[in-house]
Specification:
By secondary structure, the protein is α/β, with parallel strands linked by helices. Helix content is 37%, strand content 16%. The mean pLDDT is 90.
């Protein structure tokens, strides 16, 4: 597949790069920052640059859209504010969707988040994709709007394979071990711990490998978490559409 990867310099992009840059795909990156260690072509541009977007999607078979919509100059909660969230997850996405359809792209994947919900830990029932999102933060709201746009474009272009992946705490190897150790330390100290739902890096890579091979036309909304027991999140769509479910991993924590 001739694949345009938007936001490949970010956190998720670094985790799944081995999948993206495999021999199966001819990969071009589109980002504000260079892709460290990448041997693929990179277009350094803003997602709201019409001319660059138009040029980038031309001739592509698929577009993977995964910028988060945060300010790279800030960290933590301060990074998630109104302007970058809506600029990337609404305005930028709209530009790529519009031009991808015009260019005849047959596969589009939007990387969303379970942050479209508020208080995902405090629910009495297992969460499925059918539950209406309720987040009102700039980040969560902008991601909700992005999902809605993908669904609308899919309805108007039934031949298009349109995926929206709701991720939950995707981690690299170092982050996984650190987070698991913090979780174990709290448990050993007798503190109340939230359920462990972080997504292992190998599980995340397997998810995107499966998504890249999906050729089922229509809009597919899929949540993907590290909840291996299925006590909080339902993975029926992930299993049915992508043949994916979170894996069990032995760790040093």
């Amino acid at each position: 597949m001739k694949l345009l990867v938007v936001g490949g310099a970010g956190h998720v992009g670094k985790i799944i790069r081995p999948v993206l840059e495999s021999n199966e795909h001819e990969c071009t990156h589109y980002d504000l920052r260079p892709i460290e260690g990448s041997t693929c072509r990179t277009i350094l541009a803003n997602v709201n640059d019409d001319a660059q977007v138009n040029e980038a999607v031309a001739g592509m078979d698929g577009v993977l859209y995964m910028p988060m919509g945060v300010d790279p100059n800030l960290t933590g909660c301060a990074a998630i504010n109104t302007d970058p969230s809506f600029d990337v997850n609404v305005k930028g996405l709209y530009r790529f969707l519009t031009q991808a359809v015009k260019a005849g792209v047959g596969w589009f994947c939007y990387v969303s988040t379970l942050s479209v919900y508020q208080r995902i830990y405090d629910r009495d029932t297992i969460l499925t994709e059918q539950e209406e999102p309720d987040a009102t933060s700039p980040y969560g709201m902008s991601k909700r709007m992005g999902e809605a746009m993908c669904e609308m474009y899919s309805h108007g272009n039934p031949q298009l394979t349109m995926l929206a992946l709701r991720l939950c705490h995707p981690m690299n190897e170092e982050g996984w071990e650190q987070a698991l150790k913090r979780h174990a330390d709290k448990a050993n100290a007798g503190e109340n711990c939230r359920p462990w739902i972080g997504t292992h890096p190998d599980s995340c890579r397997q998810l995107f490998a499966a998504a890249l091979h999906c050729d089922k036309p229509g809009y597919h909304l899929i949540q993907a978490t590290g909840d291996t027991q299925g006590t909080h999140f339902d993975h029926t769509n992930a299993k049915r559409i992508l043949n994916w479910e979170p894996g069990q991993y032995v760790t040093t924590a």
